[in-house]
Amino acid sequence: MTTITPHRIAERHNHTHGPGCGHEAIVHGDHVDYLHDGHAHHEHLTEAGVHYDECHTCTCPHCTDSCANCTCADCSCDTCNHAVCSCEHCSDSCNNCTCADCTCATCAHAS
Question: Where are the domains of the chain?
Fold first, then answer.
């Protein structure tokens, strides 16, 4: 069974984003977002080819930043990237933490 995830396709680009492309890259969950011109987007490979998707926007009522770049101190958005793992030996964001013994309740892989 195929699951369709809603996404917003970003504008066309004149180059392929990647290391050295000149745009800041931020690891966000299972992809890398590239920041430029006030927004963030990432490559999306489909059967029809490659396009770029816009990053989600934080759902907090007082925030308009992308989830890859959100810095809200009281954020409750489950796709934002700013929460840092609370394990004493980890300093990665909760969205990217890979600690095998993680006990942080806000990390993406914790259960």
Answer: 7-80
For residue 22, what are the contacts with CB-CB under 8 A and spacing of at least 6? none
- Report d(CA 105, CA 107) in Å as an integer: 6
Q: Are 94 and 84 in contact (CB under 8 A)?
A: yes
Choose among 12, 10, 8, 38: nearest CA to 23.
Answer: 38
Question: Which tokens is 43 given?
Answer: 């490559």
Q: Is 33 strand, coil or helix?
A: strand
pTM of the predicted structure, to 2 decimals: 0.61
Summarised one tens digit per residue, pLDDT across range 71-88 is 887 888 878 876 677 788
